[in-house]
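Exercise 7b. Backbone tokens:
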């Protein structure tokens, strides 16, 4: 259904809508989107128009023998070695069931000595028969370190109850490029100093002989 209303600045447009589930729809979860869009009233010839559209997602569950089960979690995009101080962790929450669920995605970052450095928890809707990509940026810059990254998410079990999926643990080595450059320059300067010292010793030996 398309409804139009001319509006002036600061106007409020109220409208009612009804979502009707078609007859014969299989049990399970679905979603609908209600859009509101602005359109310019008049356009001159050759003008470029800008349309702004805002959508609201509505989740609908059709009663019946629908299974909320078959969820899983996989980690993706976590490098084992990084030269960037701005790190992030990501993964995918999979829903093989017929009903959407709310999943809690968590990331725990620990140091080599098992000290917890950062912890994040986010909530996500996962629609039926879909995979939801999740991503979490680390809030603090890391110059150097070896970190243990633990990712997990809650998914429906075989009985439909929400449970923790097997956690995925990965080790990450982080070295900031600037720190790496400083270390390389330091090594080069040290080698030059050693070579210079060895040449000086050779000259001293020749003069003694």
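Sequence design result:
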């Amino acid at each position: 259904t398309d409804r139009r209303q001319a509006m002036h600045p600061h106007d409020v447009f109220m409208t009612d809508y009804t979502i009707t589930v078609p007859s014969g729809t299989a049990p399970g979860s679905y979603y609908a989107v209600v859009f509101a869009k602005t359109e310019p009233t008049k356009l001159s010839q050759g003008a470029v128009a800008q349309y702004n559209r805002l959508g609201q997602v509505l989740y609908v569950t059709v009663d019946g023998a629908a299974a909320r089960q078959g969820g899983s979690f996989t980690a993706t995009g976590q490098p084992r070695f990084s030269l960037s101080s701005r790190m992030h962790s990501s993964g995918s929450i999979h829903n093989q069931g017929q009903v959407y669920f709310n999943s809690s995605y968590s990331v725990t970052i620990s140091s080599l000595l098992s000290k917890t450095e950062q912890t994040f928890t986010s909530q996500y809707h996962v629609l039926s028969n879909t995979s939801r990509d999740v991503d979490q940026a680390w809030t603090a810059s890391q110059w150097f370190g070896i970190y243990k990254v633990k990712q997990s998410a809650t998914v429906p079990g075989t009985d439909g109850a929400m449970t923790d999926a097997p956690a995925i643990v990965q080790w990450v080595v982080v070295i900031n490029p600037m720190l790496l450059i400083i270390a390389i320059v330091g090594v080069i300067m040290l080698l030059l100093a050693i070579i210079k010292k060895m040449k000086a010793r050779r000259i001293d030996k020749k003069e003694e002989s």
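Instructor comment: The radius of gyration is 30 Å. The chain is about 15% helix and 45% strand.
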